[in-house]
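Annotators were shown the component list below and the corresponding predicted structure, then asked to write short factual statements about the assembly.
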Amino acid sequence: GAVVSQHPSWVICKSGTSVKIECRSLDFQATTMFWYRQFPKQSLMLMATSNEGSKATYEQGVEKDKFLINHASLTLSTLTVTSAHPEDSSFYICSARDLARGQGTEAFFGQGTRLTVV
Amino acid sequence: GESVGLHLPTLSVQEGDNSIINCAYSNSASDYFIWYKQESGKGPQFIIDIRSNMDKRQGQRVTVLLNKTVKHLSLQIAATQPGDSAVYFCAENPPDSWGKLQFGAGTQVVVTP
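Structure shown to annotators:
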């Protein structure tokens, strides 16, 4: 199957700093990628849809100025958590679908990034 | 999808037995469904999918059943193995939102020897 790679796998940062998480589709092109957030023992919650070459669309309740998304190419989307605070500590996961495979096909997920804000 | 807060339902299964994991989905118009397996500290791993024009699909050791009447999905794992221990999520893809998956609450499967 297609491979989606996230970097870093984990990161610890100080409160007030910003952290950038990368999501890459390694062997396919993805005009659209998705960012999810997962708290311990909970399900994945969609945060935003990342669109190549245009602005991301955010789900209700997600602060777009806090979670900056950039999708500059068909294989890379980045999520920047700005002015991070301890409550932003979570597991962030991206997904992408292979453009060439069309609709009705599974999304491939990255391995996730564990963010801890201290 | 539903959220059950800080507690995941747990299914304890003896090694070699069959497992059945259930999921209720929310949107009657959803046309594509996926089961994912998530091990601790990792991203979701695709298991099997099914489209709304089907009611059953089989893979290797897994079967997904779809009941659109009651908006219910199930995942059956045959001859459960220790490596099957993980959290299992169902996900639905509502129409006109390709790729925007809504996840169910998840079920923790614990395989005992």
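Statements collected:
1. The radius of gyration of chain A is 14 Å.
2. Chain A has a mean pLDDT of 92.
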